[in-house]
Structure prediction request, 567 residues.
Amino acid sequence: MSDQFATDAPDEAVKLALRRIEEATARGEGSDVEGLAFNQVVVNMGPQHPSTHGVLRLVVTLDGELVKDVIPVIGYLHRCKEKLAEKRTYYQYIPIPDRTEYVAGMNCEWGYVMTVEKLAGIRPTRRAEFIRVIMAELNRIASHQVAVGTFTADLAPLGTAMVFYMFRDREHILDLLEDVSGARMMFNYFRFGGVRYDLPDGWVEKCRDLMKRLPKLIDEYESLVQTNAIFLQRCMGKGVITQQDVVDYGITGPNARASGVARDLRRTRPYSVYPELDFAVCTEDHGDVFDRYQVRMNEMRESVKIVEQALDMLPKGPVQIGSLRAPYVITPPPGECYTAQENPRGEYGTYIVSDGSRYPYRLKYRDPCFCNLQLFPKLLRGNKIADVVAISGSIDLVLGGIDR
Amino acid sequence: MALEIGTNPMDMDAIAARLAAAFADLQDVRVQEPDTVVARCDKGRLHELAQGLKDDPEVGYETLNFIAGVDRVKHLESVYHVYSWKTNTYLELHVEVPRGKAELATVTDVWPAADWHERESWDMVGIRYLGHPDLRRILLKDDFVGHPLRKDYVDLIENHPHV
Prediction:
């Protein structure tokens, strides 16, 4: 082993943090904490910190217990997913989007497949559209369970009780997804013009059964946390995202909706069969940590409603257009296309430039977490160090998507 | 401030026509269904145009969605994708940058969200955004050599001393 990893030399982010402290000292700024000599400390949080849910690294500058500055450092999970697209045909690339936001693989795959379909002018079959909606919404519930479960585990008063309840029930959803696709998380299930397999026998009944039980389970989760005084105290009024932040930084998804912005791409930029389905866009008013938690809980209930409706409306017919071989070779005409779909974390966009060949010329993800993370320095400044964990948990980051 | 999402009172062609009339710097304005206006602009005019687009009272592209750097071989391109809350539509702005001197004015002072997107574009495609407050690499490590999403990028083992 070379010693190159074991260096004590500060990297660019730490140097930047130290430089900012020097500048603040030179300006003659004092401590915000009463009775404290001006003495700022740089704390490196992550990339292996248990509460960052992945390899997020935050270089936090502390003034006593207060956060003075935060520099997020990302890229530890960079797996060249945009570069990979250059050397893979459109068809070969389908499994890769799963690995961007790996807790919501179905949604990410859909985003990619939808963009290529739009570029190439393919219309999926109607049955496939409903199956896609069902899969995406099931995955949304599973994703929110991970988000809220790990977030409550970070807050300590409940210990790991909630996360176990949620992961227990998430496993039932993953079982359903495994039954159709063969995989728990890396699905590789969507195809241009449809989906890979039709639903197996008895799957619809199994899914209906789970959807009947889920609302009660969600009530159970809520009864666990919402009566807990410590939980409420740590959540209420902390880490407020204003509507101006939403506009300035392109915050999307539950984080924006918790601030009262009723922007849900399933409604505001409708795609697939969502216009035919009846569901509410969940919003809250304050934009604090608690509201973001609340929006996710409500969205789980709405997703259950959507799945039930889609199961009722599920038409008969093929799940693929044409023959199965047709979508293997696909050559969209030259041009570029951007489509966005409502991922559990926000606007998950895929921008593809085609040069008319079998390979995407340029593929670019607009990842919701990447945009949401950018707000961190502004959001965390002035909070206490203990709240950094609560606030970052409530934003719900998935590093696979941020680092791509 | 109550943020309302517009219902696109004008149709797309009207928005495109309005933009073409209001901003002389916008070239090749066309509509991409269902809700995107695509246009080009000269790199020298970008900053002024960005501010104008943001402040436009009727359309007002207030949110920067993302910036994509694209290597078109003959030149590089910085693609700005912006969102208008008032009309619930997008604008896709293509700015050509010469390969030899890949420099462009920053728009971080117009759209704060541009900060990381410009860093990513610099990291991946090597477009230098002049005036950016902190133009460091973002996804790749600090001592990485080259810009991997350029079409002429060659991955040399010498560039990876840690491996």
